[in-house]
Amino acid sequence: MPVISPLTAANATSPVRLPPQREGAEEAVAAGTTVDHLTETYRAHYRSLLGLAALLLDDTASCEDVVQEAFIRVHSARSRVREPEKTLAYLRQTVVNLSRSALRRRILGLKLLSKPMPDMASAEEGAYDQLERDALIKAMKGLQRRQREVLVLRYFADMTEAQVADTLGISLGSVKAYGSRGIAALRLVMEAQA
Fold this sequence. Notes:
Elements: H1 6-13, H2 20-32, H3 35-56, H4 60-76, H5 87-112, H6 123-141, H7 145-156, H8 161-168, H9 172-193
Helix pairs in contact: 3-4, 3-5, 4-5, 6-9, 7-9, 8-9
């Protein structure tokens, strides 16, 4: 017994026809979604689409990428465009959506970036610093008492010369003299050790 398909059976009794409104709708879809129409709209409005992306993004390369990606997406979904005059609206909305997505990815990327470590001296540098500090302390101990007091108060306690003079009960000229002699003596000792 031969197998008869439903299409063959329908054709045998009456020809298959779509309702008139359905045929008109398919023609409108075909007219609004042709590759030529989409390409023409894209070319005509490329600069305005680029300007729209530039309002949302900050660099030209990203704007160009977004506009090109919008064309590709609308091209692949062109069957959804029912009316030819809405092609530009679809392109614009796609540019806006892609720009938002690009911004979200950037923000997420910034949040996920590891925070840089603070600048730290290497162990070797730390050891050299400690040696220099120890040498300085040893050299300070070799100074006269007044020179040592003036230098400690002036440079380690961060006092002004007038404050050092008041603290030690000596004149401002004496503070300057003890300070300069103390620094000269420290320089000689430190250079001899280097």
